[in-house]
Design goal:
Strand content of chain A: under 5%
Number of strands of chain A: 0
Largest sheet of chain A: none
Radius of gyration of chain A: 20 Å
Structural class of chain A: mainly alpha
Oligomer: homodimer
Order of helices and strands of chain A: HHHHHHHHH
Shape of chain A: elongated
DNA sequence: GTCTATAATCAGATAGAC
DNA sequence: GTCTATCTGATTATAGAC
């Protein structure tokens, strides 16, 4: 049995720093900006140290992804346990911050096998969870053949559409898409009037531009 | 005025070959596989020759994109001039071959400024064209606030959702999404019964897996 | 047109000193 | 834990021969 290379512990503060730096780099400049050198530089350390915690670069990326999924699942769990899970899911999906990182990973999955496998295995789990939260809606009466799974996939997909295009500078028709989507959501999950004033939670989706985005 | 570097003509057959090879490489292995070396190798030429026709790599990518947009616009034009433009647009957007390349460019745009600018300028043009084709539909009567622009954006977006997730190996709920979408389309643009037999054109969207996809 | 040769970066990954 | 030093290989891009 050959001598294994040394590797950092999961509890290390430095390891967490590396994950933070990688995530931030992806959000600021896109996943293509991620390299052991750039990540290390970002927090004033050396590339070799990155390899100490993450032997291969894919290990780093997968770790970032897993942590992000865990965080998302947690936030999602509280969101969809609300009175109006469908509208909560919509707000969640149209929130740029929640979705931008997911988009980066989807883009990255196109040419990183490890990430693709990770996404495929987590996506169905999350979607199933979302569908479960929508199962209390009265889809039986829906005249359009809607069901929890399809609605979950659609709502999240439309949210991503808006966020993704927004990041590219495309906005034509977005107002109308939002109108149609929200009208549809209202029909599936009627808003319950509270005290008569305007509803408390405005749509989270505003101007989707990212802060520090730089080109190539 | 400094001496300009030599550059190949637009009519060159070799230039067209380079564009073909680049496009194929993007579809087979993802945009990240595109480099002057890989492209040149693919057709048995040298990297330097790529730079002869396309001084910078971005020039090559933009040229591929422009050519693809032109081709798409042409196919789209004939498609949506049919009797049922909305259903035609749906079939177009759910066709993996038509959409896969677009997805690659969208992913690439996340970190290539030149591509992002190109996409932003072409996307609105295409969407406007699609919306125009849908303007003959009776949206005035639509109880859900649908309008051509929003419907165009939504239909294409949902199609892309299916294609994109399919490429990642995600399929959970896709059948239901397709059901919901097609039911919606039928309500917006009622199918006209022909001679009573099954409708001629089946949905184009089947198994979305790409052929030669390789990881990392 | 197409090539060879080369410069200048940048990447991933490892060994071994401290 | 963190570093320096190094190997290896890929990439963009240019100059100049043929």
């Amino acid at each position: 049995m050959k001598r294994m290379r040394r590797i950092g512990t999961e509890e290390s503060a430095t390891r967490a720093l590396l994950l933070d730096a990688t995530e931030q780099l992806m959000l600021d400049e896109g996943y293509a900006a991620v390299s052991t050198r750039r990540v290390a530089k970002q927090i004033g350390l050396t590339p070799a140290l990155v390899h100490y915690y993450f032997p291969a670069t894919d290990d780093l990326l997968v770790a970032v992804y897993r942590r992000a999924v865990d965080k998302t699942v947690e936030r999602l769990r509280t969101a969809i346990s609300s009175e109006e899970p469908l509208h909560a899911l919509w707000r969640f999906s149209t929130d740029a911050d929640c979705t931008a990182l997911a988009m980066e990973f989807m883009a990255m999955a196109n040419h990183r096998k490890a990430i693709r496998a990770e996404i495929a295995s987590s996506a169905e789990r999350v979607r199933t969870m979302q569908a479960a939260a929508l199962s209390k809606l009265a889809f039986d009466k829906d005249p359009n053949g809607c069901d929890p799974l399809g609605v979950a996939a659609l709502v999240v997909g439309i949210g991503r559409l808006l966020v993704m295009e927004g990041a590219l500078g495309i906005a034509l028709g977005h107002d109308r898409v939002r109108d149609i989507a929200e009208h549809w959501l209202d029909s599936l999950e009627p808003r319950q009037e509270t005290t008569g004033d305007a509803r408390a939670d405005a749509p989270a989706y505003g101007r989707p531009q990212r802060a520090g985005r730089r080109g190539n």
